[in-house]
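User: I'm putting together a teaching handout on how multi-component assemblies are represented. Below are the sequence lines for each component of a complex, exactly as they appear in our records. Could you produce the 3D structure of the whole assembly as C-alpha cells, so the students can see both representations side by side? Please keep the chain order the same as the input.
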Amino acid sequence: MKNKQDEILREVTQSDYKYGFYTDIETDTIPKGLNEDVIRLISAKKEEPEWLLEYRLKAFAQWQKMSMPKWAHLKIPEINYQDIIYYAAPKQKVSLESLDDVDPELRETFDKLGISLDEQKRLSGVAVDAVMDSISVKTTFSETLAERGIIFCSFSEAVQNHPDLVRKYMGSVVPYTDNYFAALNSAVFSDGSFCYIPKGVRCPMELSTYFRINAANTGQFERTLLVADDESYVSYLEGCTAPMRDENQLHAAIVEIVAMEKAEVKYSTVQNWYPGNKEGKGGIFNFVTKRGICKGDNSKISWTQVETGSAVTWKYPSCILKGHNSIGEFYSVAVTNNMQQADTGTKMLHIGRNTRSTIISKGISAGKSQNSYRGLVKVLKNAENARNFSQCDSLLLGDKCGAHTFPYIETDNSSAIVEHEATTSKISEDQIFYCNQRGIDTEKAIGLIVNGYAKEVLNKLPMEFAVEAQKLLQISLEGSVG
Amino acid sequence: MLSIKELKVAIGGKEILEGINLEVKAGEVHAIMGPNGSGKSTLAAALAGRDIFEVTHGSVNYMGEDLLEMAPEERAKKGIFLGFQYPVEIPGVSMVNFMKTAVNEHRTYQGLDPLSAGDFLKYMREKKEMVDIDSKLTNRSVNEGFSGGEKKKNEIFQMALLEPKLAILDETDSGLDIDALKIVAKGVNTLKRKDNATIVITHYQRLLDYIVPDFVHVLYQGRIVKSSGRELALELEEKGYEWIKAEANGRG
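Assistant: Of course. Below is the structure of the complete assembly, with chains in the same order as your input.
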C-alpha cells in the first residue's frame, strides 16, 4: 500500500506524465481577457451546475463595481486584468521535475528545498492535492481517507460529487462581496482543494495542497474549502512555488474554514512563490483572503504561515470566533528580501463569550524590502471575557529595509483584556562575528539567528515541514548581508 | 605555530598596535598583560579576524600560512579559538544547536562526517563534565540571561568542544569570583596538550596563579615592551605597571 502511494506521489511530483494522466486536457489554454464569456467558458469546461455559474456571474458583476484596495502599505503597479489568462491546464512535460527545462537558479533552489524525488518520498504519510495552474493534478490517499468518511479531493471534484456540501459552505465565510480579490476569485476560480471531516473523526494524516503556477501569462485563482464537523480534527498544509519570470503573475486565492462544535483545524502555509529578481523584476502578486469561522462552541482554528515568497503579499488569515469558548490563533513568519513587499497580519473577531485569540507575528526584512504587520482585534458587544494576546516582532537586516506595524484594537465589551507587545531588533555585527569565530560563515550565521528568532512560530508547523521551512528562511535571506 | 612580525593595527584610522612581534610554539602558554587601553583586546580581535580592525602593516604566519588572508570562520576552522571578553547573546538559538552547527562546520572542514544529534549530545556530555558546566546552561539560548561567570565558563566549554590548536583567551578572568576562576583555569589546564598553545590575555596576575604561563609579555601603547618568564607576572603584581610605563616612556 505504502509503495503504491509512494509511486503515485512520485508520478505526481516528478514524472513527465508519461502515464497519461492528462492527455485529455493537454494544451488547454483559453484566450487572454476577462468578461462574462470567459467565465461561462471556465464554468462549461468544468461542467459546472447552473447555480455555480450564477454565483460566478454575480461575483463578476460585483467585482466590476469594486476597485483595488489602496489601504495597504504596498506599491503595486497597475494590473491589466484583460492581459491575463484565466484558465490553463498543464501540458505534458510541464511538471515539477522536468528540471532540465528549469532555470538553474530555480533548480538550485528546488534542490536546496529538497522538493525532489527523495524528499517527496519522505512525505508518504501526507496526503497531497497537487494543483498546477488552473487544475488539480492529483489527490493522493483519497481512498484511505474515504474509509473514515473524510472527503479530500479537488474543488472541481467536490462540485461534481458533493454539490450539497459545496453549495452550503462556499462563500459562507468569505462572501464574494467581501473584497476586490475575493470577488475576482469567486468569478474565475478554477480549482483548489475541498475537505470535509465528519463528526468525531480525527484525520489520521496531514492533508496538504501543493500549488504550482507554471504556465506563463496566467493567473492562479484557486479556492480551498475546509469543513470540520463536530469534534473532529484536521491539520492541513499548503505549499506554493512558481517559476522565475520577468512578468508579474497574479495569484488571488480564497481559503474558507468552518469549524463546528469542539472541532479543531490547524492550517499551515509555507508560501514560496517566486519573489522577483534582485531589482524587483517579476514575481508573484499574492492577494489572498483566508478566513475561518469557529462556528461551534469550544472550537479552535489555528493559522501558521511562513511567508518567504511573492513580489507582493497581501494576506490576513483571520478567525471569526462565533462559538462560545472558541479559540483563534495566528502564528506568522514573514520574510522580505531585495524589493519584496509584504503587508500581512490577521483579524480576530470575538463574538462569542470567553473567546480567546493569540497572535504571534515575526517579520524579517532584508535588502530594500518593506514588511508590514497589520492586525485587527475586535471584541463585539456580547463577547464577555474575551482575551487577546498579540506579539509583533520585527527583525531588520541592513539599513535599507523597512518594518512597519499597524495594530488596530476595537473593543465594545469592557470585560475584554487585550494585550499588545511589539519589538524591533537588528542582527548585530557582534552576533555575526561571534558565529564566524566559531567556524560558522555569515550566511549560515544569519540562518541560525533568524531561525532562532522565528522558532516560536516554526515550532507550530507540522514536524515534516518545520525543517524545510527552516531551510527556506535561510535560502530566502541569502545574499542579504554582505 | 604562530609568528607575528611588526604587526600594526588601526581602528577608524587610529593606530592601536604599533608593531607587535610575537612567536608562539606548540605546547606553550603565553600571557599578555598590560594596563587598560594598551591594545590587548585589539591584538586578540585582529588575530581572530574582526574586520573593524584594519591591519596596516606586518605579517602573521599561522602554521605555515598567511593568517591575515583568511576569513574569520576559516581561521576558526583551522584551529584558532577566541574566548570573548564580552560573549555575545543570541536569543532563540539554543547552545546545543549553536555548538552542533559549529562542531559540524569544523568536522566538515576536516573532511569528517557531521555528528548526528545523538552523537553530538553524547560528545557534549563528555565535555560538560570536563569543564564542570551546568547542564541547564546548554539548554538555554546562547549566553542569553547568563551571569558574567556563566558566560565565561561557557566560553571554556565551547573551547573544549572545538578543541582548538591556538586558544586566545581575552580577559576571561575579568568579572569572575575565585570559584569561577578556578573552574575556568581548570578547563584551560585540562585542555592543554603538547600540540596546542594558549595565549592568555589578562590585566591581573591572579589568573596566572592557576594557569601557569611559560612566557609573560607586557603590552603598553601598542607595543610589547617587556617579555620574560613567569616571574614577570609576579613582579607586576607587586609593583604595578608604573615602572614599566616609566621604563618604556624613558626609552622612547
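A couple of points students might notice: The first strand of chain A starts at residue 126 and ends at 132. The CA atoms of residues 68 and 180 of chain A lie 6 Å apart.
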